[in-house]
């Protein structure tokens, strides 16, 4: 049974943008697309109230919003949404289902059989970025499959270079894929994912690696700038060595390496404006308490201007 590109659909603008992105990704990979709409069970007091009709259950799960936008080509059911995606993305096999349960639990379970799980994230008013809710964070923190977060309003043209007149166009070359990597503790799963995504898109890969001076160097820095340059050269060499086998395997991918002092989160967020996809890692922590995804990944998730792929690794 082939793996799928799986999308959690809830009728919101961000989940619809994510579904369109997932359909494009399914076509790139030659994989089927699976839509899942999660319906939360009614609270017991509500479920047992005889005077509350079926409309209450629909409204509890956001049915009112979907009904209000039923004329936009998406319909009001997962099957109708799937039919629309088949029309807009010919050749992509699309299935749909409705599941009752807690959204993060259902989506984490669904991710086990997925090549990729795709979720929507609401855009932050006044900012170019995401507002990742509790469900999205819980899924990202607990699934060991790659998860992609797509903001509301994301269009295919946003992932491509402007045409010669400066107008966004989905017919031009993809923007580069952006990878944040820790060259001192690299992980093959994260790097391979980024190279493969760049190869599928026929575009380049921009790799950012941020580093900090060892504590025993910091106090000598103002008096000896050579120390900084020596560490910078060493880190650049480490990054080059880390990427060398991947350059050989993906020889058609044009790679740009950037090694710099300081945290990479701000650089990644800034560079995301010119990227088709941002790829970051998340170390797997088998801890039942709390949600931890790492400060850099957390910052990128909330503020990236492009879709973000979070790849779990040991």
UniProtKB/TrEMBL annotation:
<comment type="similarity">
    <text>Belongs to the universal stress protein A family.</text>
</comment>
<dbReference type="InterPro" id="IPR006016">
    <property type="entry name" value="UspA"/>
</dbReference>
<protein>
    <submittedName>
        <fullName>Universal stress protein</fullName>
    </submittedName>
</protein>
<dbReference type="Pfam" id="PF00582">
    <property type="entry name" value="Usp"/>
</dbReference>
<feature type="domain" description="UspA">
    <location>
        <begin position="1"/>
        <end position="151"/>
    </location>
</feature>
<dbReference type="InterPro" id="IPR014729">
    <property type="entry name" value="Rossmann-like_a/b/a_fold"/>
</dbReference>
<dbReference type="InterPro" id="IPR006015">
    <property type="entry name" value="Universal_stress_UspA"/>
</dbReference>
<feature type="domain" description="UspA">
    <location>
        <begin position="174"/>
        <end position="311"/>
    </location>
</feature>
